[in-house]
Amino acid sequence: MEQSCPIVHERVDEKLIRLNATIVFIGLAFFVFTPAKWMIVPIIADFAIRVFWGVKRSPICLGLKYTLNAMQAEPHLINAGPKRFAAKIGLFLMMLIGVLYFANLIIASEVVGFISLVAIGAEAFSGFCVACKMYNIMLSMGIKLK
Fold it and tell me: Which residues, given as ranges, of the chain have pLDDT below 50?
């Protein structure tokens, strides 16, 4: 059952969000498990675009939306509020990983990366969004989120 947000009345395609999470998962896995540490930069950039300018301007989402349209996939629309909150948490975590890495705290960046990888993998492969659950709990506690 989808939980609703009384603040945000926009909806997003869950298929698009889950495919985006899959792409981020792959990039973050490269960061955590290979020497390709530069992969964190495009991930941070895409999260920042999604947070500040929306999913419609995200390069990853644009490519995925084109692919879904070409496949004539029916969208599965869900409330955008929890997903926006999740993107903000994702941006914070990706920036933290980047700061830790560039501060030469490699192990710490990889630990935070691995924890993030688990959460992003849950979204990508099972549709379980950890930040969305946090969002709904915070709303039920009366905490106002925008």
Answer: 1, 4-5
Cα gap 133→139, rounded to integer Å: 10
DSSP string, 70-112: HTTPPP-EEEHHHHHHHHHHHHHHHHHHHHHHHTT-HHHHHHH
Segments forming the whole domain that contains residue 101: 11-140
Which residues are CB-neighbours of 96 under 8 A, at least 6 positions away? 112
CA distances from 34 to 14, 41, 56, 94 (A): 29, 15, 30, 17
Would residue 50 count as lying in a domain?
A: yes
* pTM of the complete model: 0.89
Neighbour tally for 145: CB within 10 Å: 16
DSSP class of 21:
H
